[in-house]
Amino acid sequence: MPIKFPLGVDSFEKLRKENCYYIDKTGLIKELLTESFEVSLITRPRRFGKTLCMSMLEDFFDIERDSRSDFEGLLIAEDKELCAEWRNQ
């Protein structure tokens, strides 16, 4: 199956299910969970992936579905303990 370029795709689930080109940003999840922040402010220039990052976080923490397959092969999936404690909880 060829890899697609996700022009205009802002859904992490759709991006993963349709085998789109993706630069793994799941390290952000681990950073948010393991670092101590008083406030987490995510700022980037326009068209820099803020909505996609929020969709990724939503999919990881969504308690209404099992998002395990969306994160297979990505950095966050390597941390089994963190995923067991936080994914879909």
Low-pLDDT stretches? none
Q: In percent terms, what proportion of residues is strand?
A: under 5%
Name the helix and strand elements from N-terminus to C-terminus, one letter apiece. Answer: HHHH
Helix content: 25-40%
DSSP strand count: 0
Shape: globular
User: Describe the biggest sheet?
Assistant: none
Tell me, rounded to a whole number, the average pLDDT. Answer: 91
- Separation of termini? 32 Å
Question: What structural class do the secondary elements suggest?
Answer: mainly alpha
Number of helices: 4
Query: Taking Cα atoms only, what radius of gyration do you get, to the nearest Å?
Result: 13 Å
In words, what does this structure look like?
This protein is mostly helical and 89 residues long. 37% of the residues lie in helices and 0% in strands. It has 4 helices and no strands. It has helices at residues 12-17, 27-34, 50-61, 80-86. The longest helix has 12 residues, at 50-61. The chain is globular, with a radius of gyration of 13 Å. The model has no long low-confidence stretch (mean pLDDT 91).
